[in-house]
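=== Structure Prediction Worksheet ===
Name of assembly: unnamed complex
Input type: mixed (protein and possibly other molecules)
Chain count: two
Listed entries:
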Amino acid sequence: MRITRLLMGMPITVEVVESPHPPPLSPSSQRGGADRGEVLASAIEGVFAYFEYVDATFSTYKTTSEITAINEGRLTLAGASPNMQTIFALAEQTKAESFGYFDIAFGGKIDPSGVVKGWAIHNAAQMLWDGGFDNFYVDAGGDVQVSGKNADGENWRVGIRNPFNIEQIVKVLSLSDCGIATSGNTIRGAHIYDPHQPGSFQPEIVSMTVIAPNVYEADRFATAAFAMDRRGIGFIEHLQGFEGYMIDRAGMATLTSGFEAYVA
Amino acid sequence: MRKAVSPQRPYFNQPLKQFALSFFVVATFAAYAIREQLTGGSGTTNAATPTLAANLPQVAAQPAPNSASATHYRDGEYTGDMADAYFGYVQIKAVIQGGRVTDVQFLSYPSDRRTSQRINNYAMPYLKNEAIQVQNANVDIVSGATLTSEAFIQSFGAALQQAGGA
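=== Predicted Assembly ===
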C-alpha cells in the first residue's frame, strides 16, 4: 500500500509492503475486528497524522506554530514542548559535529527544518516498526528511510535525481535498512547557507547525496556537507558508516570510497 | 525579420537579398549552436517545460480521506513567483480542479550548463570521479536534489496562496 500526500511543503510518500505470511495480529487489533489491511491503513494514517503535527509545530511559515512563537519572542525554549527542546539540542549537536556548517540560526530567526525533516521521517519509520511492519519506506521530499525489502522481495531500488533534469535519474542504488538524503541548493535560508561566509555562498556543487545508517543521520549530514561545498565529500568520507555522491556544476560526480557497494 | 529590400533603390535589391539570405543562414546556425551549448547538446534535455511526473500525479490521484488537507483551493490556474535556484529561475504554474492540485507545470526551468568541463579535484584527489550518466531503469524511490525542489516549493507555494490555500 502506497500513499502520497503534500505536507510540509513537499510530497510525502509512505509505502508498506504486506508480507505474504503476516505475523499474527496483536490482541488489540483483534479486539476491534480489524483485518491486516485495515491495520496497515490505520498505521499509514498515523504516520501522516504525525507529519501534520510536525508541520503544525515546526513550520516557520505558520503563524500558529510553536517555532513561530519562539521566533516572535512569545515563547522561550525553556517553556517549549519536549520535542522542541529535543530539536534544538539535536541542532546544537549537529552544528558542533559539522564544524559550525550546520546552523539553524539565520537572519535573526531560527529555522530548524534541517534537522526536523530527517528526525520526523525517522520517527515515522519507528512508528511503523513499532506496529510490526518491516518492509517499507518513508520518503519526504526525496529524503528516505528504507526498511526491509520491496514488493518483489528485493532491496529497494533508489534513484538519484539528475539535478539538471528532474525527470531523469543518474544513479540506481540497491538499499535496505538505511537512510538516504540528497541536499541541493536552496533559496529558503538556513539549511544551505554557509555561516562562515554570510551572503557569499556560490557553491560549485549542485547535489550531495548521503547514505547513512538512518535517515536522520543522512539528512543532517547531507545538509552540512552541502554547505561545505567541494569539501563536503571529504567530510562524508571521514564519517564512519556514511557514503556520499556529490555532483558539481559541470555534471561531474565524486564518490566516497565505499559508495559503489550500494550501486545496483 | 527586418525588411531588407528598399523599393526606392531597386539596384540594391539583388545584393541585399543575397546578404539577407547569408545573414539568415549564419544567424540560424549561430542560434542553433548557442542553443545546443546552453542545453548541453542534442537530446540531453528539454528543460523548457518539464512536468513533475515523478511526484504529482500520485498526489492528484490518491483519494483524500482527510479532505481538509488538500481540497480547499479555488479552481483555476495559478502562476507562482520566479524563484532563484542559483542556476537560473524556476517558475511554477499550478492547475486546481475540484479544489485540488491536478497539474503542475514548469514555466521556467534552469537549463543545463555543461559547457564548463573544468574538473576540479583539489579537495579529494583520491576519491573517484565520474561524469553523471542518465539511467534508464525502474526505481521504487527517487532521492532528489533540492536544488530545484526548494525553488519549486517556493513558486508552488506562491501559486497555491493565490488559490486561497493555507
